# Entry
Amino acid sequence: MPLVRVAAAALNQTPFAWESNLQNIVAAIDDAREAGAAVLCLPELAISGYGCEDMFCSEGIPETSLEMLAAVVGKTQSIAVCVGLPLEVDGALYNAAAVCVDGRLLGFACKQYLAGDGIHYEPRWFTPWSRDRVEQVEVAGERVSAGDLLFEFGPVRVGVEICRDAWKPDRPGRRFVGRGANLLLNPSASHFAFGKHEVRRSIAREAAVDLGVPFVYSNLLGNESGRAIFDGGSMIAAGGEIVGSERLSMAERVLTVADIEVVEHSARNEGVVESTNWRPPERVAAPPTLVASGWDVSPASKYEEFSRAVPLALLDYLRKSRAGGFVVSLSGGADSSAVAVLVWLMVRLGVNELGLVGLKQKLAHIESIGAATDPDELVGRLLRCVYQATRNSSETTENAARQVAEAVGTEFLCWGVDPFVDGYVETVAKAVGRPLSWEADDLALQNIQARARGPGAWLLANLTGSLLLATSNRSEAAVGYATMDGDTCGGLSPIAGIDKAFLREWLRWMETTGPTGIGPLPALAAVNSQQPTAELRPADAGQTDEADLMPYDVLDAIERAAIRDKLMPLAVFERTCNEFPAHTRPQVAAWVERFFRLWCRNQWKRERYAPSFHLDDENLDPKTWCRFPILSGGFDRELEQLSLMIANGEDMAG
# Structure
């Protein structure tokens, strides 16, 4: 059986950033050719970018994609390349992959199973390709085949499954193998989620073991278009072995190369596009050779994944938005401290992988970082933190904020906002004709303190064209426990995709352990020793977040049951009682009712949160994952049934 050297490249692309996308593709082809690869698989929609959204409906996107494809084809001398792009056929748009060999476009494979769930809306723009359908399309004056095809060159007969195609029980690869395919390629745009990489590995293993053919998987990399994070993680599977590249890299591209054996294909020729003028270079017998290095070719902890996914997303957001840095309103609590630490990790991980010079080159649009001589100085030039005190703030939180800022190496500013708060209160009290008091106006007096911090933080960010980072988490988003134009201020909300219970666990892990190659940040002890509190009521009120809401672990369990699993209030109540038997049923019923009332009442807030990053299937982002009406019946009937059940003494059940 002949040996063929194959390659997969993870690419960091951007929607319709034509020139930079093309440069990245051509550089990956050059890298693969230099590594001696005969076949290279590039990601899904790599030419146009995956996240073009409704711009896919523009005529210019598929037209320009074909122009860019012509440039790619011209760079494929002595190598076979599979690369994704949108393709119009008979007036419909398809998610396609072009197969190019030795300077010639052989044809297009088209996606048969579109992703229309979760953050994906492919059926809005694309039409699924029908099984066994083959059409002719005109490209640059030539007629080429498109559809359910195999591509043959030398001893290799390739079937192409595009991302979701391989996730289906009736995956096209099964039919391709039955038609004589001896290699499967999978160009993908598979977004990051905790633990998802293991699912991909099982799909690769199924192809290599159950279907008996080598499988080459390439994925997008980085924060492509704002919310979704792509973790790369290219794989080549053959027999019982999987060769994988590093994930969540901060490089523009990561190449994986391996030598594989290909069995002679059968004589069946239906739907085969052949290239008779080219043969792959012969390989001497050798074990798979990996041309990649770095973190995680094996399962990783959720803490480790979080520590790398969000910093990568922050780096790409910073450079692609061309912002001048970040500003964080650092309260000394868990949320804002987590945001500051994630920016610190962005720099530390970037320097570890790319070197100080390499990271500065990626952020070359920020002139102020040019003179930075070490990672600490670079953090200081990219991040500014401010503590904005009121008379209700404590020395504990100010000290914690200062310790965190010093530990991550950033400038720490501190000022008071009481004059602004008092001015607003006096002005409004005079207008309404009565004094405002904590007894009568508790919530309003809390909120004005949070809002008074917004203008100063925005002004600080505007001074350097920096991006103000909001500090609200997912648990707060679920129940609206955040002040609009207060702690929600910002152009980006890095932790809005993760729950408060996890954040607290992660901060304790960061204090004692930290990511591989980085280590712990002991200064977080000053944060982790506190009970979370907004510090918006007078100190003698003893305000804590969990007293205002409920225990965070209970809140997160109710949120998962109600929002992720779509259970109605009674079912949420029973599940929560079973999960937390130490709490009485009347208490759980009160918490369940509080959750549903606040969830329904505060949907308008959720619509106004700054963009966040997608991290798992519990995301609450209303624009990409969790749709819910702003106005609704509020589960009144169901919550009344729950109240009646408790009132009738059924709280003794179970």
In short: Residues 284-299 have pLDDT under 50 and may be disordered.
